[in-house]
Amino acid sequence: MDYAIETISLTKIFSDWWGRAKVYAVDDLNLQIKQNEVFGLLGPNGSGKTTTIKMLLGLLHPTKGHALLLGGQGSDPKINARVGFLPEESYLYRFLNARETLDFYGRLFGLAPDVRRMRIEALLEMVGLKAVARRPVGTYSKGMARRIGLAQALINDPDLLILDEPTTGLDPIGTRQIKDLILKLAERGKTILLCSHLLADVEDVCDRIAILYGGRVQAEGRVGDLLREADKRQFVTSAVSDQAVGKIKEILSDEGAECDVTTPMERLETFFINTVVEARQQARPTSGAVSTTDIGDFLTAEKSQAGILDKLVSSSESTEAPAAAAPELSEVAPVETTAPQPDKDLLGELTRPAATSETEQVRRPEKPVPDLPQAQVDVPVEDGRVKKRVLDALTGSNPEQPDQPPAQDEPEQDGESSDA
Amino acid sequence: MRRVWAVAVNTVRQALRMKVAIIFIVLLLVLLPVMGLTATGDGTLKGRLQTFISYGLSLTSLLLCLLTVIVSTHAITSDIEQRTIYTVATKPIRRHQLILGKLLGVIVLDVGLLVLFGGIVYGVTVLLPGFLDVSPEERQQIDYEFYTARASLVPPEIDVHDEVMALYQRLVDKDQLRQVYPTLPQSEIIKELTARKRLEKRAAAVGDALMWEFQGVKPRGNDETLFIRFKYDVAENPPDGQVYGRWQIGDLRPLRDGTEMKTPIWPEDRKDPVRTFREIRVPADVVAEDGYLSVAFLNPALNRTVVLFPVEDGLEVLYKADTFTANFIRAALLILCRLVFLAALGVLAASFLSFPVAILFCLVIFFTGTVSGFILESFDYLGQGLGLFYAYTVKALVQLLPRFDKYNPTTFLVPARLMSWAFLGWVVLTMVCVKAFLLLVLGLIIFSFRELAKVIV
User: Fold this and answer.
1) A110, B87: Cβ pair inside 8 Å?
2) Which residues of B touch A92 (CB under 8 A)?
3) Predicted-complex ipTM score
4) In this complex, do B90 and A60 lie within 8 Å of one another by their Cβ atoms?
5) Which residue from A237, A328, B28, B190 lies 20 to 30 Å from B307 (Cα-Cα)?
6) Which tens digits make up the pLDDT trace of B386-442?
7) Which domains does chain B have, with CATH numbers?
8) Looking at residues A13-30, what average pLDDT do you find?
9) What's A291-350 look like in SS3?
10) Per the CB < 8 Å rule, is A54 touching B453?
């Protein structure tokens, strides 16, 4: 026992109307996912990933074999209470707005009203939907729907999180955010089953992976073990002269090793995020009024991400997190008190008429917003500082690691609630 | 329970934010008051009120029934089709709780809308005379004959079995049986003769009298009013279509026994059209202390024809037993029974059918239910030769049909008849506690064991 997820000869055969076996969607699958593991289930389309998840959760009945979640059946409410699930698309009630959605799911978990309210606010901030929380979910773009879907999967502070293609439809920043979230949750002792065919995502966060094809596991193991090329070595140096390279080559050739010298590439993800940050900083002096939906989403997202993450990470027994959070709080506190309120108003106002996708607006920074009140135009200067810090924190390029204000009161409250 | 309630609230929200619910609501909000203004009936105020309450309640009932069917099936099938069920069913809620929540939501919505629209119908009905120029007589008439809930007593059936058998024997003895009824089997002949005999007991030749006796007449007070509701039929149509009648109403036993009269006798001579319901208004103090009342009819020589009172509805005594308001509330509850039944039906249909098919299924049952009397009769008639097999299969299924036509609120409110709590209780028992419950349990079982995800490979 003690596996978070275990499947025993799990098999799903889809048969036609006459009962003849047509497709082996999952074929004799034996998976063992330990507690506190981030496990990636990979495979091309139609390889049985989603079917496996549906069987784990009791949405499909296995043709043969068993699927155990946290040592029990996926249809058992006691087990469900400890599981968070984000399906391959955010299947939510289109007529509810974001806050109502989270409230509904919170009620299904039987959360007490004050805990529910607190978590809803924290999650909305974290996923950056606070400004649009009053809009029906049916009007959300795919990325926004994904965010609210993630929020609903987290509302019960689950021990086991099952994420089916969590990053589809998200911009790189959102993707990065989810990956960071997964890592933080894992730090806090949660188990995560990540199901994806976006290999980069899996590689970044997973401890172990299994590759499915045709409903069977084709390869399984630790990411490091699977990917390490044991017969090769790699040096990374700062820029050195061709002379030095020549010398090194000589030494290597003495050992009979082959050597290939290139300039390393930055990761596109890092490059993208840095570019967005720079663009935003440069855009500000030229047209001060620019502030767009995605900034709002993004800004609130980052600020709050820390909030919820700390909240989630600093479980009551953890001594480390509050200590780490304290100095950061004092540093950024003034910004929090002055900037965000009007900023949010501004965002709210901009969001309503615009309601367009985030990336679109990033690329049109020159778009004038003529009829904004002066007071609100002033705000983004402060705003920019926060954003930069936040981004730095996110991308890890700023050693100072300034952290985010909302952490101030939330960790404690949540600590209490999760105790209770 | 809190989870069930959360689902219920969500279902109500879904229904209200779905355009279809709004369409129904707006339609009713517009139509009901318009109907109040345009309904005229037979031109009298009473006719106008009767027309309005009949159409108003029927329309409310019909539209709410349709709405219930749509909302209850949609609430479940949309979850499955739009796959929101993936995120809901994986939460700590049992599937039967989920279904019960949906059902509860539909019922809550129904109750709310029924209160709203029932209130409108009631309000218009009660306030309508206030907007019209009503003479005191008309006012009195509607008070007595419309704004009330009257219990009904029909004369006890007279046992004619012996007479029928004697008649039958006589026909056989005289060898006339096959002349009169060349083809019918014996049972049908007996039936026919019985019907004839019964009618004979309710026919008065010119100069003859008929008397009916009623026990247990309990008007609410002595200052109340009784009604003798009757319908003439004639052997030969009078030229002006009118029949004279001489009535004596009260405790006629002293006349027969030669004892002292304690209560007054109400005499009335009148002229009424044939084949039309008419009512004689009688003060309630004619009823004897022990609840005895007799009604005598004399066919005067002015008529040149035999006068008959049809067996089913030829004559009855009506008296005020409750208020219009109480009766109206029971009528609304009767509609609610329908809605609960349909909601359970919708849940069952949605548990294994997809949206359009489920709705079609429910609508077929609904419309069959509204003509269930006809269907039951025809099945009975057709199935006579089929015996046991029929009795235990088709008949049992047909019995499960809801009896919407029999339990129709307008048949009570239009003639201002009392719908008793006992009657309502019986409907609740059969339609809700038995039939709807069975449907619901079946639906829950199916839903609990089915696969919720779609087959996608």
Assistant:
1) no
2) 84, 87
3) 0.77
4) no
5) B190
6) 666 666 777 777 777 888 888 889 889 988 888 989 999 999 999 899 999 999 999
7) 2-145+324-449 (no CATH), 203-322 (2.60.120)
8) 83
9) CCHHHHHHHHHHHHHHHHHHHHHCCCCCCHHHHHHHHHHHHHHHHHHHCHHHHHHHHHHH
10) yes
